[in-house]
Amino acid sequence: MSDASYRDAIFSTPLDRVAQFSFDETVVACFPDMIRRSVPGYGQVLGMLGLIASRHLRHGARVYDLGCSLGAGGLALAGALPPDAFDYVGLDLSPAMAERARQTFAAECPAHAMQVDVADIREVEYASAGMIMLNFTLQFLPPEDRDALLARLYQALEPGGVLVLSEKTVDADEYDNAWRVERYHDFKRANGYSDMEISQKRTALENVLVPDTLEAHHARLARVGFARSMTWFQYLNFASMIAFKEG
């Protein structure tokens, strides 16, 4: 991205009270570094988006990117597909995120049709789309709101369209889950985070990021109408799924 970004040091000093995590200007400033060092496999997920779109997206169709943050998903598509291949609509609840995404698209892919709006993805009236991306977004919605959103997204997808859903997950088996969490913390330590940073970030995300099991995700996708879904990528407790709307 063309904008300057900074090293994530939000939780590097002791805090008397750890506030709930939010995507404010402080997070926006260091977000590329934060997600690179905090989300195993994030680069691989991004790298596949263009390939998935090349295989499944009808030429000229609309693509929704829900919780688009700084627009990395949109950049992945623009890097793989010509300007007339799709119309991109990115939605994010954070005005700071949305503004940075607009600036990035204007600088990096000015020939592509890249729209970014500030919106609550639960309240949007969705138009017909060939592809919908939910990369590490659903996990921040209250669990009771997730079925209704996915049902609306299923209805918005055109026949033959695909939904890409990437999430932090939890394992149903207590011991397997503990192992994945421990190795995830090892991953963060290897990327320069201290034990204090890991602990304080975990506290900040408590009741903000509520993960589901992969089984719960696939069951929900089936409930809302998807006859077929699969987990195509997993790295520790992070995974990406794809769901297909039959044509």
Automatic annotation (TrEMBL):
Domain of life the protein comes from: Bacteria
Designated gene of the protein: cmoA
Domain Methyltransferase as annotated: residue spans: 63-161
Pfam family, one: Methyltransf_25
Chain residues that bind S-adenosyl-L-methionine: 42, 67-69, 120-121, 135, 202
Keywords: S-adenosyl-L-methionine, Transferase
HAMAP family: Cx_SAM_synthase (MF_01589)
Similarity comment: Belongs to the class I-like SAM-binding methyltransferase superfamily. Cx-SAM synthase family.
Protein name: Carboxy-S-adenosyl-L-methionine synthase
Catalytic activity: prephenate + S-adenosyl-L-methionine = carboxy-S-adenosyl-L-methionine + 3-phenylpyruvate + H2O
Keyword S-adenosyl-L-methionine attached: yes
Description of how the protein assembles with itself and partners: Homodimer.
Function: Catalyzes the conversion of S-adenosyl-L-methionine (SAM) to carboxy-S-adenosyl-L-methionine (Cx-SAM).
Transferase among keywords: yes
Cited CDD domains: AdoMet_MTases
EC number: 2.1.3.-
